[in-house]
C-alpha cells in the first residue's frame, strides 16, 4: 500500500471555519487521521489551537464533519443522476463514473473519506455519516434489484454485489494516479465493463454504459461537475 500523492484542498465554501476543515481534510488525506493534529493545522493557518477547538470541539468531531459533508454531497449527486437515467446499466455505470471523478475533482475529501471509512462501522459520533453511507448503499442495491427484476442483470445477491463495487472504488486512493498510464475516464470505463459483464449485461449495452462519452458518463460528469 502506498501513500497518496500530495492532494489539493477540497471545495471551500468560505469563512475561517471552512478553511480549518479543508486544511484538516488535506492532512487526513495525506497522512491519515491518527497523524493529523490540531497543532499542524493551526501552524499552517497561523492561528491558535484554541480557535480550532472553538469551532469544532474535538478532532473526532472534525472527522465526522468531513465524512458527513462527503456523503451528503455524494447522496445528492447520486439522486440527481438516478433521476436523469432510466436504464439500470446506465444508472449503475453512473455510480462508477462518478466514483472515479471524485478522485480527480475533489481528491482531498475523497481520499480522507476512503482512508478512514472503516471508522463509520461503529465509532461514536459517526451516526449521521453512517446513516448517509447506508442510504447511498441502498440506492445502489435498489438499482441492482431493479435491474434483476427487469431481466437486465442476472439473478444474484444485490447487497453482496454492491459491496464488491464499493470495494473496488473505495481502495482507489491506494493506487490511483490521475496522471498515470490510464486516464481517469479509461479507468472508469474499464471498471464499468468488468462490473456489467459480470452482471450478464449484453456487450453492446456494456459498451454504451462504459463509454466516456455515453449517457452514463456524461450525466455523472455534468452532475458531479456542477
From TrEMBL:
Residues 37-56 bind DNA. Residues 14-74 form the HTH tetR-type domain. The keyword Transcription applies. InterPro entries: Homeodomain-like_sf (IPR009057), HTH-type_TetR-like_transc_reg (IPR050109), HTH_TetR (IPR001647), KstR2_TetR_C (IPR041490), Tet_transcr_reg_TetR-rel_C_sf (IPR036271). Keywords: DNA-binding, Transcription, Transcription regulation. It comes from the Bacteria. SUPFAM superfamilies: Homeodomain-like, Tetracyclin repressor-like, C-terminal domain. This is TetR/AcrR family transcriptional regulator.
